[in-house]
Write a structure and sequence with these properties.
Keywords: Lipoprotein, Signal. Pfam families: LolA (PF03548). This is Outer membrane lipoprotein carrier protein LolA. It comes from Flavobacterium frigoritolerans. Helix content is 18%, strand content 43%. The chain is built from 3 helices and 12 strands. It has a 12-stranded mixed β-sheet with strand order 7-8-9-10-11-1-2-3-4-5-6-12, with helices on one face. Strand 2 (72-83) and strand 3 (86-91) form a beta hairpin. The protein is globular and about 50 Å long.
Length: 229
């Protein structure tokens, strides 16, 4: 049986997975320049060209969640490896493997593994290919402030959801002007919650194992297997 702690971790891992893919795959979509900031579009195009040239991407990140009103201040670290439509995410002690067809959620603390098929038509499905079109509509964007972070020039682009139902007030995307890599992603919620994903390490074209995205059940002999499909 899933514990309350496991559900909390899975929910946070799902949310974090979406944010990671928003960072990487935001730049693989085709943006309309109608009613948009042309300078922001030019910068996005430059990052798009850079990201598309990579065979794989490995990211180490820091994730923070703050809400002053609720006195919440949480920090977590994790990493994700992405290649094509496959990924491995490690976050809050949970490992999520997506082999292109199924997602394997591994929780060592509970010795439990949840296996589920991914339906691309499901709005909550988390796959690299689905994230290719995440920002294709529903957002207006424009150039924002520039900050100097330890000698790095970080240009922010502000994205504002156009739907009144969206619980996010705004999103700020920080781009390293020199490398054209993403520095961070900041989401401001209408309820005062601020979440920040900061990229500590952005590596590309790494030597990966041929079984990098393969779930091997024999590695977990005593785990309970929960198949949802």
């Amino acid at each position: 049986m899933k514990s309350t702690i496991q559900n909390f971790k899975n929910n946070n891992a799902n949310s974090l997975t979406k944010k990671v893919f928003q960072i990487v795959f935001l730049f693989l979509v085709t943006f309309s320049i109608q009613a948009q900031d042309k300078k922001a579009k030019e910068l996005l195009d430059q990052v798009t060209a850079k990201v598309k040239s990579y065979d794989n991407i490995v990211i180490d990140f820091k994730y923070t969640l703050n809400n002053a009103k609720e006195n919440i201040n949480q920090d977590s670290k994790g990493n994700v490896t992405i290649k094509g439509n496959q990924f491995v995410l490690n976050f809050m002690g949970v490992t999520k493997i997506f082999d292109g067809q199924k997602t394997y959620t591994i929780v060592p603390e509970d010795e439990e593994i949840t296996i589920s098929k991914v339906n691309e038509k499901d709005d909550n499905a988390i796959t690299p290919s689905k994230m290719l079109t995440f920002f294709n509509s529903g957002y207006k964007y424009a150039m924002d402030i520039v900050q100097n972070v330890k000698g790095r020039k970080i240009q922010y682009i502000k994205l504002n959801p156009t739907s009144a139902k969206d619980q996010r007030k705004e999103i700020l995307l920080g781009i390293d002007v020199q490398t054209k890599h993403i520095y961070n992603l900041i989401e401001m919620g209408k309820n005062g919650t601020k979440t920040t994903l900061t990229v500590n390490s952005f590596k590309t074209n790494q030597p990966l194992s041929k079984n990098q995205f393969t779930f091997v059940q024999s590695k977990y002999p005593n785990y309970y297997i929960n198949k949802l499909d």
